Amino acid sequence: MSAPWVYRLSALAIETGMRALRGMDVRGAENVPSEGKLIVAVNHVSIIDPPLAAVALHRIRYARFLGKEELFRIPGMNAWLRACGVIPLDRSRGDGAALREALAVLRGGGCMVIFPEGTRSRTGRPGRPRAGVGLLARESGAPVLPARVGGTGTFLSGGPLGVRFGKPLAFEGGTGKRDCQDFAEKVMGEIFQL
């Protein structure tokens, strides 16, 4: 699926601003397949992590995101997020509708960006991941590409922003929730080795 014009225009505008204000360094982009189902798992320390991940990916492929439903309540933000293809996620419960939509994207050969911790880390250190990234990988058969954002936790204090992509991982566990959790922890370990 090709990216909607709102997504493409937004990514270009954000990229131009980030490069002008802070500089941007993307490494390992050769590890991002240009087609086929893919989950990109990214650490999360700042509200600018999703736009930074989108900018790092947008020249290679259209990436869809899960976004906390609270963002969809902000006037004007709802229409923009939906136009960009962001899927609302109710983090207070297991959101089956969001999971089904993400799986449909993956089964259709699309790319989903996931923040395995489910929320921002206030310390910059890895938080405990949720099993969701493992569940999506198991149910879709999509490889998981670890990615680490950098420089976003100190966004206002300067220095370049960066994204490093690792090598894809395949889910090789069983069918239980513990298998999904173990895989999520493996993914987080790979992210923080980048």
What would the keywords be for this entry?
194 residues, 36% helix, 6 helices, seven-stranded mixed β-sheet, alpha/beta, globular
Can you put this structure into words, describing what you see?
The protein is of the alpha/beta class and 194 residues long. The chain has 6 helices and 7 strands. The protein has helices spanning 5-21, 49-57, 77-84, 96-107, 132-140, 177-191; strands at residues 24-27, 38-42, 63-68, 87-89, 111-114, 144-150, 161-165. The longest helix is centred in the N-terminal third of the chain and has 17 residues, at 5-21. It is globular and about 45 Å long. The protein starts with a helix and ends with a helix.
Task: Give the SSE map.
Layout: H1 5-21, E1 24-27, E2 38-42, H2 49-57, E3 63-68, H3 77-84, E4 87-89, H4 96-107, E5 111-114, H5 132-140, E6 144-150, E7 161-165, H6 177-191
Parallel strand pairs: 1-7, 2-5, 2-6, 3-4, 3-5
Antiparallel strand pairs: 6-7
Helix pairs in contact: 1-2, 5-6
For the sheet with most strands, the description reads: 7 strands, mixed
* Spatial ordering of strands, largest sheet: 1-7-6-2-5-3-4
Q: Report the end-to-end length measured between terminal Cα atoms.
A: 29 Å
Strand segment tally = 7
Strand content: 15-25%
Helix content: 25-40%
Structural class: alpha/beta
Q: Which overall shape is indicated by the principal axes computed on the Cα atoms?
A: globular
Write the element-wise H/E pattern from the N-terminal end onward: HEEHEHEHEHEEH
Count the DSSP helices.
6
Radius of gyration: 16 Å
Average per-residue pLDDT, rounded, comes to 88
Spans of at least 5 consecutive residues whose pLDDT stays below 50 are none
